[in-house]
């Protein structure tokens, strides 16, 4: 894929960029290594001052960077501005809490004495330059949820962003520079996917984080494993949305629409598989399909647009293949399901029912505004359907029965269980998945410690 801004609303190529050559990459790697030697010794107060300044600038820039994101990957501009504000919030959260989260820990006195020590401390120290391989769907948020904790921990960042969001990638580097971070603290590498392996093999790069496709995750994990380097992977999901008879159906159906089509349906934590108890299946389906039909599909720059174009032409083709495969295998199309005429990579909100295990969409992630409906006879069958997926990122459950809440929280195979609400990432809560959704955690104290050397300091009498 060329490094270029291609407007998904009309297919027009607006800007193209040359990939960085070996000489420039070497300069940047040298700079990252040299910067880390001094940046790692800065105080939490100084890092927080710089990160708070970056948050201020980002909020000031939200209109401009919102338009850039929408132009590059098609999300409704209202959502793009909200993404910028969310990033500023996360920056401020880590600026306020990093020192506490990474404070030295003192083991229990009995264990200290048992070890023969006078004092023992557990200290969190930064690793060094961390490579971040990031996707296009949340082009600011995916980066900031890595960068804010990594920078506050004393690491420096190297960003390899998706090739279709180069302006956003360059904006991020510029943002941190304008905030006062020295040049080598956070750098954007304009490179293709083929260059990632060599950079990850470089001894100056100490760890990597990737959000993206399963094949990309396998490639990074394989190289990192060979080089014995820490990685955090978030590889997508096919999140279940379980609705039980005690649920508030009106609210559950309304939230279901948002949960499915947020970011034009191109979200790893978007609800994708709607598993509804048979007693309320028909009532929920009627409300949900009506809500999906009511969405305005159109120009993402218009304030009232609910669903814009998919980010890439290939992404739309992949989604169409999943829908067509399901239709051929007997799925019922309750709404949508046909590519509209005209320019741009649009696809309508679509609901499919009668899904079977033989259909690809049952086991593959539908990255776009396509929902699948399942009927479950009881909680046991709901859990079986929900867990019958190679992914395990997040999950949603709608019930007012406390016993059912505990049952689903115990048995759903996912990194999070959201009850009577849709999944949303927050800086204070750990984020990540199990199974083929990846490993490791972002955000919260767990996220900031992922790229730290957890050091035991033992002192004798």
TrEMBL record:
Domain Aldehyde dehydrogenase residues, every copy: 3-457
The keyword Lipoprotein is annotated on this UniProt entry: no
Domain of life: Bacteria
Gene3D superfamilies the UniProt entry points to: Aldehyde Dehydrogenase, Chain A, domain 1 (3.40.605.10), Aldehyde Dehydrogenase, Chain A, domain 2 (3.40.309.10)
SUPFAM superfamilies: ALDH-like
GO molecular function, one term: aldehyde dehydrogenase [NAD(P)+] activity
InterPro entries (alphabetical): Ald_DH/histidinol_DH (IPR016161), Ald_DH_C (IPR016163), Ald_DH_CS_CYS (IPR016160), Ald_DH_N (IPR016162), Aldehyde_DH_dom (IPR015590), ALDH_GabD1-like (IPR044148), GABD/Sad-like (IPR047110)
Alphabetic keyword roster: NADP, Oxidoreductase
Key word NADP present: yes
One Pfam family recorded for the sequence: Aldedh
Family, as annotated: Belongs to the aldehyde dehydrogenase family.
Name the UniProt record assigns to this protein: NADP-dependent succinic semialdehyde dehydrogenase
Naturally occurring in which organism (per UniProt): Streptomyces mangrovisoli
């Amino acid at each position: 894929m060329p490094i270029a801004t291609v407007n998904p609303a009309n297919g027009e190529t607006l800007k193209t960029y040359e990939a960085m050559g070996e000489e420039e990459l070497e300069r940047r790697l040298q700079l990252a290594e040299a910067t880390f030697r001094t940046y790692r010794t800065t105080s939490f107060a100084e890092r927080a001052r710089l990160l708070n300044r970056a948050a201020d600038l980002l909020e000031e820039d939200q209109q401009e960077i919102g338009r850039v994101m929408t132009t590059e990957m098609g999300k409704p501009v209202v959502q793009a501005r909200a993404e910028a504000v969310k990033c500023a919030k996360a920056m401020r959260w880590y600026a306020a809490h990093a020192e506490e989260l990474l404070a030295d820990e003192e083991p229990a006195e009995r264990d200290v004495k048992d070890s023969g020590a006078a004092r023992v401390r557990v200290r969190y120290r930064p690793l060094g330059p961390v490579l971040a391989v990031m996707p296009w769907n949340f082009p600011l948020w995916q980066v900031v949820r890595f960068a804010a904790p990594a920078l506050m921990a004393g690491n420096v960042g190297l960003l390899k962003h998706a090739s279709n969001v180069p302006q956003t990638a360059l904006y991020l580097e510029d943002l941190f520079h304008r905030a006062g971070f020295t040049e080598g603290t956070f750098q954007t590498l304009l490179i293709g996917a083929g260059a990632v392996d060599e950079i990850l093999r470089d001894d100056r790069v100490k760890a990597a984080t990737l959000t993206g496709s399963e094949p990309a995750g396998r490639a990074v994990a394989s190289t990192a494993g060979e080089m014995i380097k820490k990685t955090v992977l978030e590889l997508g999901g096919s999140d279940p949305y379980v609705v039980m008879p005690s649920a508030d159906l009106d609210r559950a159906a309304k939230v279901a629409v948002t949960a499915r089509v947020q970011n034009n349906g191109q979200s790893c934590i978007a609800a994708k598989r709607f598993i509804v108890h048979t007693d309320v299946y028909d009532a929920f389906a009627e409300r949900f399909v009506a809500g999906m039909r009511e969405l305005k599909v159109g120009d993402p720059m218009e304030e009232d647009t609910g669903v814009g174009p998919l980010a890439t032409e290939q992404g739309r083709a992949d989604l169409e293949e999943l829908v067509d495969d399901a239709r051929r295998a007997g799925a019922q199309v309750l709404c949508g399901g046909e590519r509209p005429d005209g320019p741009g990579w649009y696809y309508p909100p679509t609901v499919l029912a009668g899904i079977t295990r033989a259909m690809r969409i049952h086991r593959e992630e539908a990255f776009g505004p396509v929902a699948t409906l399942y009927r479950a006879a009881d909680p046991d069958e709901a859990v079986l359907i929900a867990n019958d997926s190679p992914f395990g990122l997040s999950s949603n459950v709608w019930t007012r029965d406390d016993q059912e809440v505990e049952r689903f929280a115990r048995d759903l195979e996912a990194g999070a269980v959201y009850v009577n609400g849709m999944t949303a990432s927050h800086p204070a809560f750990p984020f990540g998945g199990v199974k083929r959704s990846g490993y490791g955690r972002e955000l919260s104290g767990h996220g900031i410690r992922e790229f730290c050397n957890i050091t035991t300091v033992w002192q004798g009498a």
